[in-house]
Amino acid sequence: MASTAPSTVMADRRDALFGASLLVVAVRELAEQSTDIPLHTSVSEMTVEPNSSVVVARQVRMHVDLRSPDEALLDSAAKRLAESIPGIEERASVTIEQVQTHG
Prior knowledge:
The strands form two sheets. The protein has a two-stranded antiparallel ribbon with strand order 1-3. It has helices at 16-33, 71-92; strands at 3-4, 40-49, 55-56, 59-67. By secondary structure, the chain is α+β, with helices and mostly antiparallel strands.
């Protein structure tokens, strides 16, 4: 359930957009940490609900893409991203669900 931004104290917010933002940073950092073998990352198709300036976002859907010519690097990057999710969930007080759309 969404809450109004002006009346909800920061500590009580379950801000899906904040959680999504932390995930975007984590995805970007994966690429920045890969210096020997190229790893290309992107986040796109972000949908925020509700999309209102006065309501804390209750849900964000987004597409995360990891690409590399090295399958071992892809596996490692996906594992590191998965390992970062519990910390993001805790920090933003959200739940992150992952659905793989391409294999």
